[in-house]
């Protein structure tokens, strides 16, 4: 969270002077006595370790060293929204849902509960357990199509920083000397696409890094509640994140030791045998990883052999010194000491045991978090429901009577579905009708007349063509998830059909899964209609090595369904046993209220390795909503998914819309709490909800400023703005005013119910040398007000909060300008404004006579940011002929006579760099020829005489294709 200092001048706040944001020196040791004792203990143990023992500690699975009393240690327990992958545990709302509460105090309690449950296994230490937890995920949700949207918090860096700091504080226990767990933030840096995620490069120019990306990662580390970072798979500015220099960035944010780790298998992407091919050998790669500030290699699962061999080879060949290994091991030991591992009593958290897992207190907390995460998107008087009057309710839809886990979810200890929660809330005497609204079908081989038949019992059986008459074992419920993808649930045992190879003889299909699951989701199909009216059953799971055209066929020997080509595929007649929409309409038609629960399946619609291509509801679900609404206009739609959705028809037509993420075991109870008004809707959106995919540039385009991304820069009409969320009451805002330390505004509950409001403070800089955000969230406060109650809400604002990164001098600056302070209930619902006159500074014209880094441009076309050298540095690479860089408002009044540029050109032949004035095709002032340097990392200095480069004006550098420009000057 940003550290704040008090404003001292009210109303027209006079803000003077420039801003320097000091950073702690890398590797600095805190001066407290306790820190000195810890450092001494670390050095003592480090000195007792042999080189081989030290190297063994660099892998994720650190072995025991019995002679020194060291137990085995593992980095990486997953704890995104609860303890994951280690059996039943309390499942809280997905991360995007936690952030939607806008309640850092609540999120800290959730983090503390999760930390307790991680600790609860310490006496058993099961395989896969450890006290270094890989959470929170703080990647900014700049693009709602990102497959891992559910794992992040917000498109806003400040809100992300507040929520992640709260969660990490809970996980760590809040005392950096006595850690409950050692959380790290992930994935550093600028990782927001799954498509080719280990090969794509995110362009992050200095302003984007300093103003947007860095704050999200920095907040929890600067607050000393997170203990490191996990690097991302992607490249940034042409350099893999796995070898991005953490020593000059992340390690400067705190005086404490950090334990930084790679993402799983990422080191193996780096050598010539991997996808990135950044180094020739694994030894070179692993040496670079350590030198970049990584301490632990997450690779090769539990087998450390490759890492140990590579590090030894790097030491032997002089790529590493033993001191490099010592540095990483020192960080590892520091964290292990702070976790209490080497304390005689195990530290203050040693007595926590398994009884905390899914405890009654944690179940209550899960219910509260799930309720506060719900966002009321629209309400035309349909909500809240009055349980005394609404006695006949229909609860329909594919998510009405199920709860889904996601990849990083824990195992749900129990499930309160929407149907169960609403039924319980209505109590005895009420009538609840239901339907999932999906078709039940039978599939008959068009040639033989045999039906696909499933097994009975919990484990099901291999699907075969056997029966000649359809019964329950031949019936399947078809759930549509969009773009033609469906899952098949067997009516025989309620289990989902998936694919596996049970004995090595080939893939078969079994009705034995609780839900779609697995890294390679194998429960997906498409029913492809043929010209003769039959359908082919196409396998559409994630096992991409099988190819894109794989179908189901009946094995001749026994009718077992196996894989085949389209030519081999069996043709089926699709017999509808039950029309799902018709059944749902029948359940809803006469109800006092119809509640339609639709949404996503977290393993299907988007997830790690799979970005969304369609931002709407699945066509089958949209048709269901329209049919139910046509039958009963008293329809409430609940959307349960993990990302913004283009609900244009629903917003226009349906009287009430609620959104929740996949919210864990208490989803149904929490939903009933909000629907019936026991809890006022308190959730607020943490992302912009767009009307169309057309409002967005490519998912691979990371420049928010140039391409008008997120609420900060987007100028179009949105479906729901960032921060949006309604209450069951209404609020009146007074006139905001500047006071010492921030902005104060009165808020009054003008309705008849107690309600919750999230008061949000945004600022806007009216004039600037550069393009500024339209709005920027600076503070928020969640308040609960009784009917008629007025509260004065103070929102902190400091001078530093008005700063932006000045690329002309590479430092923070507050410009001499008028700033608007805007207070409201969302970024699109501003209720009051005041102005702040900041007596800052005027950014002087650029002095290009000094050596200027090319990456510090003001605008560009046809270029990419690239790695200047493998260890560090950013250059600008020309992707097209006529690519250009703008350096605005340059002071050439002294008369620039000479261009000096440091350039690399890998390709053969000559290239050129031109200086033009006023425009990319403006008056030429000079031109230099660049010969091939033979390598992208071999730079040469070129010069050119300049003519007419005078006055104060914009300077453009125009580059031919293939040039890489690091620095230049006009002297």
UniProtKB/TrEMBL annotation:
GO terms for molecular function: hydrolase activity. The keyword Signal applies. Residues 1-25 form the signal peptide. It comes from the Bacteria. PROSITE patterns: CBM6. The keyword Signal applies. Residues 850-971 form the CBM6 domain. PANTHER family: BETA-D-XYLOSIDASE 5-RELATED, SUGAR HYDROLASE-RELATED. Belongs to the glycosyl hydrolase 3 family. This is Glycoside hydrolase family 3 C-terminal domain-containing protein. It comes from Streptomyces polyasparticus.
